[in-house]
Amino acid sequence: MAAKARGAFPLIVALAALTHVAGTAAAASVETSRDARIFELLDDDQNGNVSMMEFKNNQMLVFYILDRNKDLALTVDETFLPADVFASIAGTGGKIDTLEFLDIVDSAFKQADTNQDGLLERQEFVTLLNRVRNR
């Protein structure tokens, strides 16, 4: 479980980003805009925070979007994760199934909620994404 918790940040970012953007000023602007859109999509009630319930309501949608071959398991190619990070999450099975995915997403939310108020503010979400991008 500790390995899964450590891998939660990269998985969430991989799920949210879905595309790779190069490190130029224009790309940074695109990244910022995309991050804002993702946050708005997660914030179902548009109150400026993402609750655990909002996060959980959207996690399976993200899983199904990523699961391109619809086998209910994510491979390294479907997550956009570096191979070593993926391996630490997937373990010996070589795939992340739906239950593993749900567990990882819960851990990621808790780790990103730095003020422990049960909500992800926009800055906590952006900090989470930036922290993983800069690994």
TrEMBL record:
Organism: Azospirillum himalayense
Signal peptide region: 1-27
Pfam name, any one: EF-hand_1
Protein name: EF-hand domain-containing protein
Tagged with keyword Signal: yes
Coiled coil: none
Keywords for the protein's UniProt record, in alphabetical order: Signal
InterPro entries: EF-hand-dom_pair (IPR011992), EF_Hand_1_Ca_BS (IPR018247), EF_hand_dom (IPR002048)
Domain EF-hand: 100-135
